[in-house]
Amino acid sequence: LEGRGRVLTSEWQALMDQNNRLIHERRQAEEEQARVEDHVQELRRVVQRKIEEDRRVEQSLKELDRHLDMQARELAMKYRSDHDIIVRQFTELRGTIRRTIKPPRSHSTAATTFGSASHRTL
């Protein structure tokens, strides 16, 4: 009986040691899980901030795109206006140059000049 008591005591002690080890491992696992959950929560907050930041950047880029589009339209209108003015000014300048080089002749002057030119060739 005494031997049996020692065996049971030894088995009981082994089971208690195993139980204590399992309790310790469970606590470590719970602590690790808590750390992991904290880390996951922090990562979620970081991801949420990045998503919000991306939305702000996207909105800013859309506003920039609208602004650039508006500027492009304004510049196109100004270019057309400036182009029309430049074409008109060059047309006027060409006309002035032509009138300076070849003054307009009246019909009588042209006929006289033509007549005198015909007489010279004869």
Structure commentary:
Residues 106-122 have a biased composition (Polar residues). Residues 100-122 are annotated as: Disordered. The protein is 94% helix and 0% strand. With 122 residues, the chain is an all-alpha fold. It has one domain. The model is unreliable at 116-122 (pLDDT under 50).
**What is the percentage of strand-forming residues?**
under 5%
Radius of gyration: 50 Å
Task: Summarize the biggest pleated sheet.
Answer: none
**How many helices in DSSP terms?**
2
The sequence of SSEs as H and E is HH
Low-confidence parts, pLDDT < 50 over ≥5 residues? 116-122
The shape, in one word, is rod-shaped
How many strands in all?
Answer: 0
**Amino- and carboxy-terminal Cα gap:** 165 Å
Number of domains: 1
**How confident overall, as mean pLDDT?**
88
Region (Disordered): 100-122
Keywords: Coiled coil
Coiled coil: 12-49
Biased composition (Polar residues): 106-122
Which helices and strands occur, and which strands form pairs?
Blueprint: H1 2-101, H2 107-121
Features:
single chain, 122 residues, mainly alpha, 94% helix, rod-shaped, disordered C terminus, coiled coil
Short summary of the structure?
The chain is mostly helical.
